[in-house]
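Appendix B. Raw example, untouched.
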Amino acid sequence: MKRQLVALASLSAAALTLSAPSAFASGEPHWVETGTAYTDTLGGGQGLASRANGSLLYRGLTDIPLDLRLKGWNHVGDPDIARGYVFDAYQGADTGTSKMFAVTTPAGKRYEYVHQLNPGEKVNNSFAAVSPDGQWLVSGEWGDQTRLQVFPAPLLNPSTPPAGGALKEAWQITLDKPVRDIQGCDFVTDTRLVCASNDATGTLFPEIRPLLQVDLPHKLDGQPITGAVKSLFALPQRSICTDGTFESEGVDYDVNSGTLRAEMIPPGACALSTAVYSYRQG
């Protein structure tokens, strides 16, 4: 699904910001770029989540615990944090028949919830996004999709096993427009998600690697629902390196500060350092 970045350890250059903030699509909300930070790609280039105290949790290839690697879980996606619980999305081999969500409690105890793939479901587990009420876990697959998957949120939803186990899909969010290569999503409100797409074709939306908005008619309630999709703006693709391709990664909305963050891995030798762009609503 995503580039394997193990070879980055031999690289020496990091990405720098060169140009002005990216243009925004028309319509609301209007997100204003407020800053750029950087994180080590191997340790944080897959995604990020904000804690209640405002600090950030990053995820990268080096964050996968050895015991999970030995079980075949070799990719971690964009995480989320809800009520102090950390939700991680894991996948294994492309030929696998399951995906896994690991949930770490505030006390540091980790539980594993394994989902057996439904017919036609892809093995990819790109991200974990918990609804603001803590009851539902939204995730997504790779490639062209017209849905987001919804599961009961492990531990927080009382219908789930209390100490890990099987996790069945509850229902889906049907999207009114197709999306492609979603790397991460996060809730902004009960009825709005933002999602980072790595689609560089410009065929589904005019913007290249767009930040998408998904509006729901009401908060998630355990029943099928349809989301309205629109592109907000192209995520920044600015670097001193020009040999290779950019890759959008995780996205996070900090409800306490109102800060939206999105990750972009620059091309070539600069891929050692992932850019983290910050936004506030203007």
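End of appendix B.
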